[in-house]
Amino acid sequence: MAEKASESSNSISLNTVDGKIFKVSPTIANQMQTIQSLIKAYDSSRVISLPHVNAFHLSKIIEYLEGKSATTVSAVKEFEAQFMKDLSLKQLKGLLIAVGYLKVNELLELMPKTVAKLIENKSVEFLRKFFGIVNDFTPSEEAKIREEIAWAFDGVDED
Amino acid sequence: MSLAEELVNEILTRLPAKSLMRFKSVERSWNTLFKTNSFIRIQKERQMNEDRVIIFYNETGIYDLPKITVVSTCDPPQYETLEFPISHLNYCLMEHITSGYCNGIYCLEAVFGCNYRETNHQYITETVLWNPTTREAKVIPNNPLAPTGNFMCHSGLGVSDPNTFDQFKYIQIYIAGAGADNEYDVVYVELYDLNTQSWFVIHDIHVTRLKSSLLAPGSYSNGLCHWLSLDFTFILCFDFHSNKFRTIKSPLTTQFCRIIEPNNCIAYLVYETDYDYDPPRHIIQIWNLEQDDTWVKRCNIVAADEYVTICAILKDYTEFIGEPLYYYMPLYNSRGQLLRQFQIPARQHIGIYDYVETIAPLSLYII
C-alpha cells in the first residue's frame, strides 16, 4: 500500500492538446526525452502541457512503453509487430509526429522502419499525398526521369 | 501537419533502392537528397545484406555477351538475372573482363569487333562503370595521351575516402615487359576522376621496378587497390588518397595463390598439397591483410580435392563459393564439403563480387 502511494505521489501529469490528463510513472516519463527535460526545468508537481500531442497518440506511446517491457526478446518483437499492425498509415504518421516531438528514442527507430515497409511499393502520387508534397518538376522533367528509370515503376501497388 | 525533415529522412533511408529510384520524381529536393553522400551511405548500411554475390560468367563461349546473375546464397538460393550493360549494333563481343569493384560499382571492359569488313572502325574498346542497382552505366573515355605500344595494362577502381560515393577513380597502370635484368618497369600511370570527368597522369610513381608482372584485375579495399604479383611474392598497392604506390610482401608463396575481396577486406588464398598424407591433403590457407600492411592468418579450408578453388567468401568465413565445376558453381563449408550448387550454367566465371545495393550515382548532374 505504502509503495503504491509513493508511486502515485511521484507520478507526472501530462495534459494533451485535447485536454486529457494522463498520470504516468517517472520511468515511463523519462523515456520521453522532451518530458524528461521539462521535468528538470519545472517543479515536477506541475501539470505538463503538451501542445503538439493528442490523447490518442499519448495513450499509444504509453501503451508501447509499458508493453515493451516484456521479458524475452521474442515477446518484445511480437508485441512490437502487433502494436504496429493495429495502426493505419495515417495513424502512424500522426503518431510519428508526436513521437518526434516527445523524442521517444525506441519508437524513433522502429516507426520509420514500419512506415518504410508500408510505402516501399507505393506510387509517386501516393507519396506526395502522404508527405504533403507539391510536385515542383515541370511535366517534361518528370517525364524524363520516369523514362530513365522506367524499370523502377514496375510492380507498384494500387493507391 | 507534416513530418519534420529528420523524420522523413529516417523513413527514406530505410527504403530499398528500387523505391528510391522511383521516388526521385516526387520532388526536386528528394532527387538532390538521394545524390548526397551521407544519404547514400546510411541507406547502403541499412540495406546491407551480406549473403548476396554478383557473378559475371560465360554460358557457352567467350564470344557471347556475358551473363550476370545476382545470387542470394541462402537456402534455397534466389537468382536475379541482369543484362550486360554494354553492346554495339553490328559489333560482336571479342573480349571482356571485370576490372574492378568498389562500393557497389563495377568496372567492365569489353572489346568489340565489327561484323562488317568494309568499315574503318574494326574494333571498339570500351570501359564502363556500372551500378547494377540503379542500372546506370557510364563510359570512361579513352585517354588520348596514353602511351601506345606493347604494354601490359592493369586497371582498378577505387575511392580516396571510403565514406564517399561520388569520388570514384579508375586507375590504369602501363607496365613494360621484362628487360635484360628480368624486371618490369611501371612506365605510365593514369587516373580517371569520375567527379571531374578527366584524366590525369601520376608522375611521381615511387615504385617503378617490379620483379614480377601482375595478375589482373585489382582488388579494392579501404581506399586502396591491390594487385597480386604473378610470382605471388608481393602485392602492389595503390593508395587513392595519397596517389602513391607501395608493395606489400605476401605472407607465403606456393604454386598457386590468389587475392579476393570479401566484405571490403583483402583475403590472400594459399593453395598447398601435403604429400605426407595418403591420399595427399589439399589445404587452402586464408590470410587477411591488416591496415598496417601485416598479415593475419584467418582460417584453413580442407579441400576435398585439388580442383577446389575458392572465388568468394561468405558468412564470416564459414561458407565459400568455388570455381564452376561441371557447369555449376559450388558452395563449400570450411571442411571443403559441398553444401549446394547454384543453378548458374557457368562454363567459366569472369568475376564474382559481393553484391552491394547502393543508389550511388555515376553522373552527378542535377535536374
Automatic annotation (TrEMBL), chain A:
Keywords: Kinase, Transferase, Ubl conjugation pathway. InterPro entries: SKP1 (IPR016897), SKP1-like (IPR001232), SKP1-like_dim_sf (IPR036296), SKP1/BTB/POZ_sf (IPR011333), Skp1_comp_dimer (IPR016072), Skp1_comp_POZ (IPR016073). Pathway: Protein modification; protein ubiquitination. One of its GO terms (biological process) is jasmonic acid mediated signaling pathway. The keyword Kinase applies. One of its GO terms (molecular function) is kinase activity. SUPFAM superfamilies: POZ domain (SSF54695), Skp1 dimerisation domain-like (SSF81382). It comes from the Eukaryota. Pfam families: Skp1, Skp1_POZ. Residues 106-152 form the SKP1 component dimerisation domain. Residues 10-66 form the SKP1 component POZ domain. Part of a SCF (SKP1-cullin-F-box) protein ligase complex. Belongs to the SKP1 family. Involved in ubiquitination and subsequent proteasomal degradation of target proteins. Together with CUL1, RBX1 and a F-box protein, it forms a SCF E3 ubiquitin ligase complex. The functional specificity of this complex depends on the type of F-box protein. In the SCF complex, it serves as an adapter that links the F-box protein to CUL1. This is SKP1-like protein. It comes from Lupinus albus (White lupine).
Automatic annotation (TrEMBL), chain B:
SUPFAM superfamilies: F-box domain, Galactose oxidase, central domain. It comes from the Eukaryota. This is Putative F-box domain, galactose oxidase/kelch, beta-propeller, kelch-type beta propeller. It comes from Lupinus albus.
